[in-house]
Design a protein that fits this description.
mainly alpha, 113 residues
């Protein structure tokens, strides 16, 4: 789980850099918005992963955190690729769905002990 926590911390660092780039780069409004949303999601989920992963106990919580990490990468990564490379954000809906599933798994793990 330390690797998950480290990925979360790196995600927060990348989110800050993305946010700074989005504010200072000359971008189309849609690209600025995509980077801002990607930065927000990456920071929030990265922070949660860094905080929750080290003490995660139970199969559901651990699985949920892994799914959250995958969803964060797909969601934020898809938006970043769309903004910077002009690639359609086709993985964003799948990443968002994984985020929802991951948090449901984490919550279930807390409820079941």
């Amino acid at each position: 789980m330390n690797a998950i926590a480290a990925c979360g911390a790196f995600g927060c660092a990348i989110a800050v850099a993305l946010g700074a780039y989005a504010m200072h780069a000359t971008l189309a409004p849609q690209d600025h918005e995509r980077l801002a949303i990607a930065s927000l999601f990456l920071f929030a989920h990265g922070l949660a992963l860094s905080a929750l992963a080290p003490g995660a106990q139970g199969r559901l919580r651990r699985m949920g955190l892994r799914v959250v990490l995958a969803g964060t990468i797909l969601f934020a990564g898809s938006l970043v690729l769309a903004a910077l490379a002009g690639i359609a954000p086709v993985f964003a809906p799948f990443g968002g769905s994984l985020l929802i599933l991951g948090w449901v798994l984490v919550a279930s793990g807390f409820l079941t002990g």
